[in-house]
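Student: Please help interpret what follows.
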Amino acid sequence: MRRVPIALLLIGFTLAAPCRLEAQRRGENPDWPCQQRLVPNLTAGTFWNGPPLDGTGDWQAEPKVAALVRQITPRKIAAEQGEAAIAAFADGLGAESERGKALTLAFAGLPEETNRERAGLIERILELGRRQRELAEIATKAGEELHAIPETAAGEEAARRSEIEQRFGFVTRAFESTQRTMRYACEAPVQLEARLGRYARALEAKL
């Protein structure tokens, strides 16, 4: 294990605590580890400035609309790809009344399917947050045990200190790995939100 002061290593395990306390203060899930605010569901009205969505019908009942929505909402689809698909879809529509209804229906389905994608991401991020908290608690306990055993210890005490150091090193590496994963994971729901906004603007431009 690297000979880094245990007190310095323990600082890293406390970095997530302010985020959890702030989340609790706002009445949010304390397991949410991201600096970005937790938004469980995206609402259509936040993005859509086109015709009213109420009364437009069921987007899933229109095969072409449903095909477009399901084509462009998977996470792997870049916003540029989705916008190109929207343009091709709109250019293939006929009369103005058909165009308006189809484009409005298309947007009606996008928040629903985007929320489905985001729900899985959010649950995985919450799992990461819970794992990070558990690792921090284990590391803190191990650090306290190490502080109680002097570095000059011999015999059984030295063997115990070595075992705790190994455990502390393993937990430290696991915590750092989770932290790196979390930095990327926290961006994913935000990217889907931004992509939904771009889709809304692309559809409105074709009305």
User: Anything to note?
Assistant: The helical segments are 6-13, 16-25, 63-72, 79-91, 96-147, 155-185, 187-205.
